[in-house]
Amino acid sequence: MTMEKTFSHTIKGSQLGIILVLFILLFIVTQTFSKLLYKRSGSSTIHATQTFRVINESDNLRLQMRENSGFIEAPPSNSWLEPDGGKDLFLQDISQGFSKCWYQIYDRGEVDGLIQFLMITHLIGDIPYCYFSNIEWTNNDIAFYQINIGDSKGEFPTLIITDRTDSTRRGRFR
Prior knowledge:
- With 174 residues, the chain is of the alpha+beta class.
- It has helices at 2-34, 164-170; strands at 49-56, 61-69, 71-73, 80-81, 86-93, 98-107, 110-124, 127-137, 142-147, 158-163.
- It folds into two domains: 1-36; 49-170, Mutm (Fpg) Protein, Chain: A, domain 2 (Sandwich).
- It has two helices and ten strands; from the N terminus they run αββββββββββα.
- A hairpin with a 2-residue loop joins β7 and β8.
- The N and C termini lie far apart (89 Å).
């Protein structure tokens, strides 16, 4: 009888130990991943983010990031967006509503204008409505178009910069 009580007591004690270990592991994992969702200032407000993408589909124009603001993550200033499919990703804090950036355009190593724009996110209920706005450029050789704007259903809102002749041929002209 005493052997049964001891065996039963040991099983209950080991189950309690397993539960305690699992609880500690859950706490550690929760703390580690929750730091990614909290503001860097220490506030406990959880932020939603939106990713925007810029693609350079021109044949020979290189774009150099000159300035960006309002992003959690963005390409560094002076980084290059290469022709023929170079991509930059921007991560925006949705609570800010808009972010902006501008690129210097280079053609064959020479400065040949700029393009600047806003990336805007409006929440309609819980659904982000995203688009590029106030697009200004000083190079007449480029064209651009937007895809996946509005309620993009998970796709990144994208601004595609291309050669004017190429976009006319495709039927996309701005």
